[in-house]
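Thought: the user asked what Glycosyl transferase family 25 domain-containing protein looks like in 3D. I have the sequence; next I should run the structure tool and report back without guessing.
Action: structure_tool
Action Input:
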Amino acid sequence: MSASSGEGDMYQEGFEGPPHITYYVITMGQPERKRNIQEQIDRQQATFGDRFPFQIEKIDAVVGKDLDLEALIAEGRLFDGIYANPDQRFNEKMSNRKNEVGCYLSHYKVYETIREKGDRDGYSVIFEDDFVLDPRFLEILDETMVKLQRTGVDFDMLFLGILGDVGEPIIYNVYRTTGISWCAHAYLVNNRHIDKILEQMWFIHNILDVQIFKKGNKGELQVLRLYPTIADQAGFASHIRI
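Observation:
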């Protein structure tokens, strides 16, 4: 299938085998979260260690309580309506809103890491540290990426764990997100489009997942999802909405 030239096109050319994927996890380093990260790695390696390399680079989370929201607003980085008539998703407590912004900036920090040292022909998976993987996570992800590349489907982000509407079918177990979706505990980024993602996500107008899916619905980002999903969240207490 020939590649199209438009930025919003869904097709790309060229398939040369299973893609290179790098894994990152955003964490504040709490002991129970560190144990969870290692447990997820160990379970996948026990089953697929001879087939799929699985190492996860830890990224220190941005601490929301340390943020100066006024400075971010003055810089033109943050929606000033965070104070007036607050979006319910930011919660009424300012500390909670700071934590939501910290979460957003943590993900953006990973995007910057991908731009700085990621394989531009590869992909990156971003986890939050409460992620729980399907026993066949690595196998299903590999099969899915091979099928996406063989059919020439292009995208910016592919959500591996998500709640909300299933969306528009693309191929096999992959759908384009439509309607209402949320959660950002596990998703894959197409490194080829990291500059576009950084540009689209630079201004903080909403909490991270809401902003991504709104941009997907508008066509500003090409956002896909898996159904069934292959990553869930553990029942830890939230370190954002507390």
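Thought: the tool returned a structure. Summarizing for the user.
Final Answer: Structure for Glycosyl transferase family 25 domain-containing protein predicted. Helices lie at 31-48, 69-74, 94-117, 137-151, 194-201, 208-218. Residues 21-233 form a domain with the Spore Coat Polysaccharide Biosynthesis Protein SpsA; Chain A fold (CATH 3.90.550).
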